[in-house]
Amino acid sequence: MGFSDTVSSIIDTSIAVSKKVVTQAGDAVQKLSDWSVIRLEKHQHEMRREALIISLGEAVAHAFITAEKSDVSATDESIAQLIDGIRTCDAEIARREAVLAAEQADKDSAAPADEKPADSGGA
Q: Are 49 and 93 in contact (CB under 8 A)?
């Protein structure tokens, strides 16, 4: 093997390794981006849930104070819609929490032993 063949082999190997590293880095950035989107969506559903809970309180207060109703039921149309919205948000939040937990478990299992969080063991 001549000098030019050796140089060519080294360059080819370097290019292959560089492509592999760039691909791995791109995959890591994509996972981080996906994870951030899921966290943002979870936060949006949490905020929507809080707004619906406030609206529910306002609707109940309105029924008792302004409409002078003596009772309010979850079957009342406006109340039922708010409760359904809260339940939907709860389901969406739980779904995103499950995805985030699975991602964290994958991340923890892939980390070398010296990088994993230490177990305090209650001691």
A: yes
